[in-house]
Structures are given as structure tokens and as C-alpha cells.
Amino acid sequence: MSVDAATVHEWIENDQALLVDVRETSEFDKEHIPGAMLLPLSAFDPDLFPSVPGKKVVLHCAVGKRSETAGKMLLANGYSDIIHMTGGMEEWKKSGFETEIPYHPNQLEQLQQPQFLCPAAGRILHDEYMVPLGLDSHSLADALDVPVKSIEDLLAEKISVSAEMSLRLARYFSTAADFWLQLQSDHDMERARHKFGNKIKNDVRPRLAN
């Protein structure tokens, strides 16, 4: 079951829901939704998934991809009524809802930097697939039948996921064919908005209907 950020916000305001954040600890520490419980997808264990009588338990991540994956894991382990929030943190913030940004005096410079929510596909590949499964660049390259350098460059964010690579990764990890392309697209779009968004707003006027 998928619900939007506004519905989840209403549930939380009425003490009807517990929010479970499946992003990584580093992302959670930068910014999170108040009251959310952290269960990173890289260490996600359905046996430890919380059950709160009388409350809906809602999964969320940065943009909705990882929470959907966590939901499928729970369904495969016999859970029902799994709820995930579409759009993740990105949609939550676009809707104007509150988030928490921990402040540490020695991290002031870091907090002044842009806070990106959409990791590159290579980072998700490493943190949420290769590390939990004990895969290194050579073993994954052999499994995908691609050069090791292609995997190393992808992990180092020197190259983007191609359509062919997305298909190979999808075949190996049993994901949707466009899953890896979509992760890369979300990452690229977020950075493009940050870099060019204001300039484009000034340079381009929307075409008005006749």
C-alpha cells in the first residue's frame, strides 16, 4: 500500500502512525523526520521490524525506491498491510512538513553545504547491495560480464548508469529493469536543480495557453 506525504503527516499528527526510515545512518544524521525510527535497508531484518498495536507502520526513504524494496522484503516474509510513503523525504519537504537537522558546533561548515537526498546509483549499489552480500568489484564484474573498471568507475561516481548496465544489474539483483536508471536520474536531477534551478527560473518563462 502506498500513501502520500500529506496522509502520513496527518496520521502522525493524530498519533496514528510510526514512521520507519530505511535510509542509511549518514543520511538520517544529516536530516530526518521528527520521531522517525531508523532501520537502514543495508542491515534491514524483517524479523526485527516493529509492531505497534493500534498504529500504522509506514516505511520511507529519500525518494521512495528503498522503502518500496523494504516493503517487498516484508511481504516476502509474511507481513501484510505494508505501507510506504511515496516520494520519501523529497516529497515530505516539498509539502512543507517539518524535518530535524542535528546541529553540532564543529560541523557548522558541513551544515552550510547543500543537503542532497538522492545518492548516486553507484553509492546505493555499494552500500545496499554489494556490502550486505559480500561482493567486491571483481566478483560483481564477473557476474555481470562487464569490465572491472566499469564497476569501479560507477562506484567512484566517475560514470553514470547506462541503460545496458541497468539491465545487467536488474537481471542479477532481480530489480525492475529501470530501477538503476531511475536512481541515477533522481540523483542527476536533484543536483541539476540545485546548480541551475534559479538561473532557469530567471531565463525561461512558462508558455501560456492561448
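(the above was protein one; protein two follows)
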Amino acid sequence: MLVLVLAVLTVSYASSLRAYLQQRAHIGDLKSQIAEREASINDLEREKQRWDDPAYVKAQARARFGYLMPGEAGFEVIGVDGKPLEAQASLNDPSDVIKTVPKAWWTAAWESMELAGNPPPPGEEPADLIDGSKQ
């Protein structure tokens, strides 16, 4: 009788454990979908910010519609097959531009003093004679 009760309990716990593991896998899938959609939302927000930049709007108007500024002359470059060639220029995303933080003047002065006290090892010796025949 005890073995039968233990067998029933084992089967019920196994089915509960299987349901728990399936739910955890489903939660993991949902979390990955949420992360993908948040990344998509961030990309769309970044694109929206780019459209707030007048230079980007002008570039898009030029590229998509062929608009010109007053006083400019337009032309198209035609390939060998007689079809117009596509423009290769594009503007970078303003958030991707490398932003450097300027160093304080005393930092540059201190680095100069350290370099003067500990010069780097000499590199290759300069050539005594330059032979232009080898290229």
C-alpha cells in the first residue's frame, strides 16, 4: 500500500515538475521577445531623433526626391547601362559620433614632464642613404 501511495505521489510531482519547467521555458521565451521588441523600440526612437535634425531631413529630401537648394544645379551620373548610379553618401547617426572629452591643460603638462623623464626606447635608425630604385 505504501509503495502504491509513493508511486502516485511521484507521478503527480513529476507532472507538476514538467508543467513548472514548461512554464519557465515559456517565460524565458517571452523575456527574449520583450528584449527584442525593446531593442526595436529603441531603434525607432533613434530614427525619430534623426528626423529632428534639419541636416538629416535635407539629406533625405536630396536622396529620396532629388531636391536641390536654391542656386544649385542638379545632375545625374549615368552608368554604362544607361541607368542612373545611386548616391553613396549618407549621414551618420548623431548618437554614434565619437565624443571626446578634452583633457585639462595640467594633465597634458604632467604627461609631457613624465615623457621627458622617461623617454621611449629608440626605434629604428634612420636610413643613411635612400635608394629610390626599389619599390
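Reviewer note on protein two: The CA atoms of residues 60 and 108 lie 42 Å apart.
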